[in-house]
């Protein structure tokens, strides 16, 4: 058998085989005591914005798209989520030192303002996750106000 | 006669006992002086390693004022290394508290600066937050060198930002070569 023919046969077999290797799902389904909602007041509008545009990668609860079942896409997604959670995990926000919480909020405000977050690849796939000008202002105000709240020690 | 004998015996016992006590206190004293020497030693190594953190920070500051993202990234890595060598065991309680508060934050900013050699604007964002951490850290420890707290009113769309410098001369790390002399000394930390 020629090498080319071998590859043509083996590729679909390999593709079928990797479908059985599914990474663990990022879906805890419960609110941890360290969840940001237990640390800070989040107005309902801001809460919806964060949940729609950030929580898929930056929390312990991902709303998976259908293609997450298709490998290797699911693996890539999984790796992506792990990295995002290491940077910022809203489900674990309460465990950060208060200084780190303030730094995170500052980065949230600046990255949302200059469109670094949500990632362009994410907003392309999730059209409703893109922030409007008003949404950006809401998040910015909330983040800056929360920094003050933490600095003065008036956490929830 | 018998009475004086007993009396002498009691006196002797008491004297010996007292001597023993004295000896004991002596040994305790010498122990504690050894202890003091030891803690003195470990306290000085802790200071030496905040020196490492500060040295890394100043290296970073100088790289940013020269618009050099690569050097800045290396300095970020130097700070991460200095944090790893930091021994908290010998810190005073108030120093421990300050260090515990700034530690995670410094680590994170240093790591980000280390990873983003090609994004100097991003490095500067982290440098701004890092500067506040380092300022609080330096204030909690006895000074090893004179530092100046400088202020740039223009950075961050006019919100302003501080940095620390080892020289009186202003070399702005936020605006770099574009506006090297923008800023003023706000405080001398000795």
Task: For this entry, give a set of tags.
heterodimer; A: 156 residues; B: 190 residues; mainly alpha; Four Helix Bundle (Hemerythrin (Met), subunit A); 67% helix
Mean pLDDT of chain A, as a whole number? 88
> How do the helices and strands follow one another from N- to C-terminus of chain A?
HHHHHHHH
Structural class per helix/strand content of chain B? mainly alpha
The main sheet of chain B orders its strands as 2-1-3
Query: How many β-strands of chain B, per DSSP?
Result: 3
Helix content of chain B: 55-70%
CATH topology of chain B: Four Helix Bundle (Hemerythrin (Met), subunit A)
Report the helical percentage of chain A: 55-70%
Approximate strand percentage of chain A: under 5%
Layout of strands and helices, then pairs:
The complex is a heterodimer of chains A (156) and B (190).
Chain A: H1 3-18, H2 36-39, H3 44-53, H4 55-58, H5 73-87, H6 98-113, H7 120-125, H8 133-151
Helix pairs in contact in A: 3-8, 6-8
Chain B: H1 2-65, H2 69-84, H3 93-115, H4 120-140, E1 147-152, H5 155-158, E2 161-165, E3 184-189
Antiparallel strand pairs in B: 1-2, 1-3
Helix pairs in contact in B: 1-2, 1-4, 2-3, 3-4
Give an overview in words:
The complex is a heterodimer of chains A (156) and B (190). Chain A is mostly helical and 156 residues long. Chain A has 8 helices and no strands. Chain A is elongated and about 75 Å long. Chain A starts with a helix and ends in a 5-residue tail after the last helix. Chain B has one domain: Four Helix Bundle (Hemerythrin (Met), subunit A). Chain B has a 3-stranded antiparallel sheet, covered by helices on one side. The longest helix of chain B is centred in the N-terminal third of the chain and has 64 residues. Chains A and B meet through helix 6 of A and helix 3 and helix 4 of B.
